[in-house]
Amino acid sequence: SLDLPEERYPEEAGRIEFQRQLEERIAAAGGDRIESMAVASYPPPRGGVWFSKFTPEGGEPIAELERIPIFMTWVSPGYLETLRIPLVHGRDFLPGDETDEANPVIVSAEWATRMWNDERAAGKRFYAGGRGEPVLFNVVGVIGNPKLTGPVATYDGLLILQPREAADLSLSLAVRTKGDPLALVETLKQQVWAIDPDVPIEDIALVEDLMAGTLAPQRFNATLVALAAGVALCLALIGLYGVLAYSVGQRTREIGIRVALGAQRSHLVPMVTWQGMRLVFIGVVIGLVSALALSRFIESLLYEVDTFDAMTYATVVVMFTLVSTLACLAPAARAARLDPMEALRSE
After folding, report:
1. Cβ distance 214 to 150 under 8 Å?
2. 274 contacts: CB under 8 Å, gap ≥ 6
3. pLDDT of residue 151
4. In whole angstroms, what separates CA 87 from the centre of its chain?
5. Between the CA of residue 96 and those of 89, 99, 100, 166, what are the distances in Å?
6. Model confidence pLDDT, tens digit, residues 11-30
Protein backbone atom coordinates (compact mmCIF):
# COMPACT_ATOMS: atom_id res chain seq x y z
CA SER A 1 0.00 0.00 0.00
CA LEU A 2 1.31 3.42 -1.00
CA ASP A 3 0.28 6.99 -0.23
CA LEU A 4 1.40 9.55 -2.79
CA PRO A 5 2.15 13.01 -1.34
CA GLU A 6 -0.62 15.34 -2.48
CA GLU A 7 1.72 18.31 -2.92
CA ARG A 8 3.86 16.31 -5.37
CA TYR A 9 0.99 14.62 -7.20
CA PRO A 10 -1.88 17.11 -7.29
CA GLU A 11 -2.99 16.08 -10.78
CA GLU A 12 -4.45 12.75 -11.81
CA ALA A 13 -2.12 12.50 -14.79
CA GLY A 14 0.93 12.45 -12.53
CA ARG A 15 -0.54 9.67 -10.38
CA ILE A 16 -1.37 7.58 -13.44
CA GLU A 17 2.19 8.03 -14.74
CA PHE A 18 3.60 6.96 -11.36
CA GLN A 19 1.53 3.77 -11.40
CA ARG A 20 2.55 3.02 -14.99
CA GLN A 21 6.24 3.40 -14.22
CA LEU A 22 5.90 1.35 -11.04
CA GLU A 23 4.32 -1.58 -12.86
CA GLU A 24 6.94 -1.49 -15.60
CA ARG A 25 9.84 -1.30 -13.16
CA ILE A 26 8.62 -4.12 -10.93
CA ALA A 27 7.90 -6.37 -13.92
CA ALA A 28 11.43 -5.75 -15.21
CA ALA A 29 13.15 -6.12 -11.85
CA GLY A 30 11.21 -9.19 -10.79
CA GLY A 31 11.70 -11.03 -14.05
CA ASP A 32 10.51 -14.62 -14.02
CA ARG A 33 10.02 -14.48 -10.24
CA ILE A 34 6.73 -12.60 -10.74
CA GLU A 35 3.71 -14.47 -12.07
CA SER A 36 1.30 -11.54 -12.22
CA MET A 37 0.48 -8.22 -10.60
CA ALA A 38 -2.29 -5.64 -10.51
CA VAL A 39 -3.08 -2.24 -9.05
CA ALA A 40 -6.18 -1.65 -6.91
CA SER A 41 -7.61 1.21 -4.90
CA TYR A 42 -7.68 -0.93 -1.73
CA PRO A 43 -5.71 -3.95 -0.53
CA PRO A 44 -7.73 -7.13 0.03
CA PRO A 45 -9.94 -7.76 1.86
CA ARG A 46 -10.92 -4.10 2.19
CA GLY A 47 -12.85 -1.91 -0.20
CA GLY A 48 -14.61 1.42 -0.49
CA VAL A 49 -18.11 1.44 0.96
CA TRP A 50 -20.82 2.61 -1.43
CA PHE A 51 -24.38 3.48 -0.47
CA SER A 52 -26.67 4.00 -3.42
CA LYS A 53 -29.97 3.19 -5.06
CA PHE A 54 -29.50 0.15 -7.30
CA THR A 55 -32.03 -0.60 -10.02
CA PRO A 56 -31.88 -3.47 -12.52
CA GLU A 57 -32.47 -2.28 -16.06
CA GLY A 58 -36.18 -2.36 -16.77
CA GLY A 59 -37.04 -3.09 -13.12
CA GLU A 60 -37.68 -1.43 -9.81
CA PRO A 61 -35.05 -0.34 -7.25
CA ILE A 62 -33.90 -3.10 -4.90
CA ALA A 63 -34.88 -1.68 -1.50
CA GLU A 64 -32.74 -4.24 0.35
CA LEU A 65 -29.55 -3.03 -1.35
CA GLU A 66 -30.20 0.61 -0.43
CA ARG A 67 -29.99 -0.14 3.28
CA ILE A 68 -26.64 -1.94 3.34
CA PRO A 69 -23.13 -0.85 2.30
CA ILE A 70 -21.76 -2.24 -0.96
CA PHE A 71 -18.01 -2.65 -1.35
CA MET A 72 -16.47 -1.11 -4.46
CA THR A 73 -12.85 -1.33 -5.61
CA TRP A 74 -11.07 0.03 -8.68
CA VAL A 75 -8.77 -2.63 -10.14
CA SER A 76 -6.54 -3.11 -13.15
CA PRO A 77 -6.67 -6.07 -15.56
CA GLY A 78 -5.03 -9.12 -13.97
CA TYR A 79 -6.45 -8.45 -10.49
CA LEU A 80 -8.53 -11.64 -10.47
CA GLU A 81 -5.61 -13.74 -11.70
CA THR A 82 -3.20 -12.26 -9.16
CA LEU A 83 -5.47 -12.87 -6.16
CA ARG A 84 -6.86 -16.14 -7.54
CA ILE A 85 -10.43 -14.87 -7.34
CA PRO A 86 -12.60 -17.42 -9.18
CA LEU A 87 -14.57 -16.17 -12.16
CA VAL A 88 -17.98 -17.84 -12.03
CA HIS A 89 -19.36 -16.42 -15.26
CA GLY A 90 -18.36 -13.93 -17.95
CA ARG A 91 -14.89 -12.44 -18.43
CA ASP A 92 -12.15 -10.53 -16.65
CA PHE A 93 -11.37 -6.89 -17.35
CA LEU A 94 -9.44 -6.15 -20.54
CA PRO A 95 -7.14 -3.25 -21.41
CA GLY A 96 -9.35 -0.39 -22.55
CA ASP A 97 -12.28 -1.22 -20.27
CA GLU A 98 -11.41 1.79 -18.10
CA THR A 99 -12.41 4.13 -20.95
CA ASP A 100 -15.39 2.11 -22.15
CA GLU A 101 -18.53 4.26 -22.02
CA ALA A 102 -20.60 1.14 -21.24
CA ASN A 103 -19.15 1.23 -17.70
CA PRO A 104 -18.19 -2.46 -17.42
CA VAL A 105 -18.14 -3.92 -13.92
CA ILE A 106 -17.54 -7.30 -12.31
CA VAL A 107 -19.86 -8.23 -9.45
CA SER A 108 -19.88 -10.95 -6.81
CA ALA A 109 -22.25 -13.90 -7.06
CA GLU A 110 -24.12 -12.71 -3.96
CA TRP A 111 -24.69 -9.34 -5.60
CA ALA A 112 -25.98 -10.97 -8.79
CA THR A 113 -28.31 -13.19 -6.77
CA ARG A 114 -29.79 -10.27 -4.82
CA MET A 115 -30.11 -8.10 -7.92
CA TRP A 116 -31.44 -10.64 -10.44
CA ASN A 117 -31.67 -13.91 -8.52
CA ASP A 118 -29.15 -15.25 -11.03
CA GLU A 119 -25.42 -15.89 -10.60
CA ARG A 120 -24.98 -15.98 -14.37
CA ALA A 121 -25.60 -12.27 -14.67
CA ALA A 122 -22.93 -11.35 -17.24
CA GLY A 123 -24.53 -9.21 -19.92
CA LYS A 124 -27.12 -7.68 -17.61
CA ARG A 125 -27.19 -4.02 -16.65
CA PHE A 126 -28.20 -1.92 -13.67
CA TYR A 127 -28.49 1.71 -12.64
CA ALA A 128 -26.72 3.17 -9.61
CA GLY A 129 -27.24 6.60 -8.09
CA GLY A 130 -30.07 8.33 -6.36
CA ARG A 131 -29.33 12.05 -6.10
CA GLY A 132 -28.17 12.92 -9.59
CA GLU A 133 -28.68 11.23 -12.91
CA PRO A 134 -28.39 7.43 -12.42
CA VAL A 135 -25.43 5.82 -14.16
CA LEU A 136 -25.93 2.66 -16.20
CA PHE A 137 -23.41 -0.15 -15.54
CA ASN A 138 -22.83 -3.23 -17.67
CA VAL A 139 -21.94 -6.50 -15.89
CA VAL A 140 -19.20 -8.33 -17.82
CA GLY A 141 -18.29 -10.93 -15.20
CA VAL A 142 -19.37 -12.59 -11.96
CA ILE A 143 -16.89 -13.75 -9.31
CA GLY A 144 -17.22 -15.90 -6.21
CA ASN A 145 -18.18 -14.30 -2.91
CA PRO A 146 -15.10 -12.82 -1.23
CA LYS A 147 -14.81 -12.52 2.54
CA LEU A 148 -14.47 -8.77 2.82
CA THR A 149 -14.81 -7.82 6.46
CA GLY A 150 -15.45 -11.18 8.15
CA PRO A 151 -17.97 -13.97 7.75
CA VAL A 152 -20.57 -12.45 10.09
CA ALA A 153 -21.05 -9.13 8.31
CA THR A 154 -24.54 -8.71 6.86
CA TYR A 155 -23.06 -7.21 3.70
CA ASP A 156 -20.40 -9.88 3.36
CA GLY A 157 -19.77 -10.87 -0.25
CA LEU A 158 -21.45 -7.81 -1.84
CA LEU A 159 -18.67 -6.48 -4.06
CA ILE A 160 -18.50 -4.47 -7.26
CA LEU A 161 -15.19 -4.21 -9.14
CA GLN A 162 -14.67 -1.39 -11.63
CA PRO A 163 -11.79 -1.08 -14.10
CA ARG A 164 -9.19 1.44 -13.00
CA GLU A 165 -10.29 4.78 -14.40
CA ALA A 166 -8.84 7.29 -11.98
CA ALA A 167 -5.71 7.29 -9.85
CA ASP A 168 -6.14 8.22 -6.20
CA LEU A 169 -3.38 9.27 -3.84
CA SER A 170 -3.70 5.89 -2.08
CA LEU A 171 -3.15 2.71 -4.05
CA SER A 172 -2.39 -0.93 -3.49
CA LEU A 173 -0.13 -3.10 -5.63
CA ALA A 174 -0.80 -6.84 -5.56
CA VAL A 175 2.09 -9.06 -6.68
CA ARG A 176 2.02 -12.85 -7.04
CA THR A 177 5.48 -14.38 -6.97
CA LYS A 178 7.13 -17.69 -7.61
CA GLY A 179 8.77 -18.99 -4.46
CA ASP A 180 9.05 -16.97 -1.25
CA PRO A 181 7.18 -13.66 -1.73
CA LEU A 182 9.10 -12.00 1.12
CA ALA A 183 12.30 -12.38 -0.90
CA LEU A 184 11.06 -9.64 -3.24
CA VAL A 185 10.22 -7.10 -0.53
CA GLU A 186 13.45 -5.10 -0.90
CA THR A 187 13.14 -5.18 -4.68
CA LEU A 188 9.63 -3.74 -4.47
CA LYS A 189 10.75 -0.98 -2.12
CA GLN A 190 13.71 -0.03 -4.29
CA GLN A 191 11.55 0.25 -7.40
CA VAL A 192 9.11 2.56 -5.60
CA TRP A 193 11.88 4.82 -4.33
CA ALA A 194 13.68 4.77 -7.68
CA ILE A 195 10.69 6.67 -9.08
CA ASP A 196 10.21 8.95 -6.07
CA PRO A 197 12.23 8.56 -2.85
CA ASP A 198 9.65 10.64 -0.95
CA VAL A 199 6.77 8.21 -1.43
CA PRO A 200 6.05 6.42 1.87
CA ILE A 201 5.28 2.70 1.78
CA GLU A 202 2.41 2.19 4.18
CA ASP A 203 2.46 -1.57 4.42
CA ILE A 204 3.82 -4.74 2.84
CA ALA A 205 1.95 -7.88 3.86
CA LEU A 206 1.03 -11.33 2.68
CA VAL A 207 -2.59 -11.75 1.66
CA GLU A 208 -2.99 -14.60 4.14
CA ASP A 209 -1.90 -12.23 6.93
CA LEU A 210 -4.42 -9.61 5.82
CA MET A 211 -7.18 -12.23 5.85
CA ALA A 212 -6.07 -13.56 9.22
CA GLY A 213 -6.31 -10.07 10.69
CA THR A 214 -9.82 -9.68 9.31
CA LEU A 215 -10.96 -12.94 10.87
CA ALA A 216 -9.13 -12.50 14.19
CA PRO A 217 -12.21 -11.57 16.31
CA GLN A 218 -14.18 -14.52 14.96
CA ARG A 219 -11.23 -16.89 15.46
CA PHE A 220 -10.81 -15.73 19.07
CA ASN A 221 -14.51 -16.15 19.89
CA ALA A 222 -14.64 -19.51 18.16
CA THR A 223 -11.55 -20.69 20.06
CA LEU A 224 -13.09 -19.76 23.41
CA VAL A 225 -16.34 -21.53 22.54
CA ALA A 226 -14.44 -24.58 21.27
CA LEU A 227 -12.41 -24.82 24.49
CA ALA A 228 -15.53 -24.50 26.63
CA ALA A 229 -17.33 -27.06 24.48
CA GLY A 230 -14.37 -29.45 24.70
CA VAL A 231 -14.27 -29.25 28.50
CA ALA A 232 -18.05 -29.72 28.66
CA LEU A 233 -17.86 -32.72 26.34
CA CYS A 234 -15.13 -34.39 28.44
CA LEU A 235 -17.05 -33.81 31.67
CA ALA A 236 -20.23 -35.14 30.09
CA LEU A 237 -18.50 -38.30 28.82
CA ILE A 238 -16.78 -38.94 32.17
CA GLY A 239 -20.01 -38.34 34.08
CA LEU A 240 -22.00 -40.51 31.70
CA TYR A 241 -19.53 -43.37 32.08
CA GLY A 242 -19.56 -43.08 35.86
CA VAL A 243 -23.34 -42.98 36.21
CA LEU A 244 -23.98 -45.90 33.87
CA ALA A 245 -21.16 -47.98 35.31
CA TYR A 246 -22.53 -47.41 38.83
CA SER A 247 -26.07 -48.19 37.66
CA VAL A 248 -25.07 -51.49 36.10
CA GLY A 249 -22.82 -52.34 39.06
CA GLN A 250 -25.84 -52.05 41.36
CA ARG A 251 -27.34 -55.01 39.52
CA THR A 252 -24.58 -57.44 40.49
CA ARG A 253 -26.90 -59.39 42.85
CA GLU A 254 -29.56 -59.60 40.14
CA ILE A 255 -26.99 -60.95 37.69
CA GLY A 256 -25.82 -63.53 40.26
CA ILE A 257 -29.40 -64.75 40.78
CA ARG A 258 -29.94 -65.04 37.03
CA VAL A 259 -26.71 -67.05 36.63
CA ALA A 260 -27.65 -69.29 39.56
CA LEU A 261 -31.01 -69.98 37.92
CA GLY A 262 -29.32 -71.01 34.69
CA ALA A 263 -29.09 -67.84 32.65
CA GLN A 264 -26.34 -67.94 30.03
CA ARG A 265 -23.61 -65.36 30.50
CA SER A 266 -23.62 -64.71 26.75
CA HIS A 267 -27.24 -63.53 27.06
CA LEU A 268 -26.81 -61.53 30.25
CA VAL A 269 -24.30 -59.01 28.96
CA PRO A 270 -26.36 -57.84 25.92
CA MET A 271 -29.51 -57.74 28.04
CA VAL A 272 -28.01 -55.58 30.79
CA THR A 273 -26.20 -53.39 28.25
CA TRP A 274 -29.38 -52.77 26.26
CA GLN A 275 -31.30 -51.75 29.37
CA GLY A 276 -28.69 -49.08 30.08
CA MET A 277 -28.49 -47.97 26.45
CA ARG A 278 -32.21 -47.26 26.31
CA LEU A 279 -31.64 -44.36 28.66
CA VAL A 280 -28.76 -43.20 26.50
CA PHE A 281 -30.90 -43.16 23.34
CA ILE A 282 -33.57 -41.14 25.12
CA GLY A 283 -30.90 -38.67 26.23
CA VAL A 284 -29.44 -38.43 22.71
CA VAL A 285 -32.85 -37.59 21.25
CA ILE A 286 -33.42 -34.91 23.89
CA GLY A 287 -29.92 -33.56 23.30
CA LEU A 288 -30.35 -33.38 19.52
CA VAL A 289 -33.65 -31.52 19.81
CA SER A 290 -32.13 -29.08 22.30
CA ALA A 291 -29.03 -28.54 20.17
CA LEU A 292 -31.07 -27.85 17.04
CA ALA A 293 -33.19 -25.35 18.95
CA LEU A 294 -30.25 -23.51 20.53
CA SER A 295 -27.67 -23.66 17.73
CA ARG A 296 -28.99 -20.48 16.12
CA PHE A 297 -27.54 -18.53 19.05
CA ILE A 298 -23.96 -19.41 17.99
CA GLU A 299 -24.53 -18.97 14.27
CA SER A 300 -22.46 -15.76 14.25
CA LEU A 301 -19.40 -17.71 15.45
CA LEU A 302 -19.52 -20.29 12.67
CA TYR A 303 -17.48 -19.91 9.49
CA GLU A 304 -18.55 -22.01 6.49
CA VAL A 305 -20.23 -24.44 8.90
CA ASP A 306 -23.99 -24.70 8.91
CA THR A 307 -25.81 -24.65 12.23
CA PHE A 308 -27.43 -27.92 11.13
CA ASP A 309 -24.19 -29.55 9.99
CA ALA A 310 -24.97 -33.25 9.83
CA MET A 311 -21.35 -34.36 10.26
CA THR A 312 -20.98 -32.47 13.55
CA TYR A 313 -24.16 -33.91 15.02
CA ALA A 314 -23.31 -37.42 13.81
CA THR A 315 -19.81 -37.24 15.33
CA VAL A 316 -21.10 -36.21 18.76
CA VAL A 317 -23.85 -38.87 18.72
CA VAL A 318 -21.31 -41.56 17.81
CA MET A 319 -18.94 -40.43 20.59
CA PHE A 320 -21.65 -40.51 23.25
CA THR A 321 -22.94 -43.84 21.99
CA LEU A 322 -19.49 -45.48 22.08
CA VAL A 323 -18.71 -44.18 25.57
CA SER A 324 -22.15 -45.19 26.80
CA THR A 325 -21.80 -48.67 25.34
CA LEU A 326 -18.46 -49.08 27.10
CA ALA A 327 -19.96 -47.77 30.34
CA CYS A 328 -22.71 -50.40 30.21
CA LEU A 329 -20.71 -53.24 28.71
CA ALA A 330 -17.68 -53.20 31.04
CA PRO A 331 -19.48 -53.62 34.42
CA ALA A 332 -22.06 -56.00 32.91
CA ALA A 333 -19.32 -58.26 31.59
CA ARG A 334 -17.41 -58.06 34.89
CA ALA A 335 -20.51 -59.00 36.90
CA ALA A 336 -21.37 -61.85 34.53
CA ARG A 337 -17.93 -63.38 35.07
CA LEU A 338 -18.36 -63.50 38.86
CA ASP A 339 -19.06 -66.73 40.68
CA PRO A 340 -22.86 -66.80 41.42
CA MET A 341 -22.28 -67.19 45.17
CA GLU A 342 -19.94 -64.23 45.29
CA ALA A 343 -22.42 -62.18 43.25
CA LEU A 344 -25.23 -63.09 45.66
CA ARG A 345 -23.13 -62.03 48.66
CA SER A 346 -22.17 -58.67 47.12
CA GLU A 347 -23.63 -55.48 48.52
Report:
1. yes
2. none
3. 47
4. 18
5. 20, 6, 7, 13
6. 888 888 888 888 888 888 88
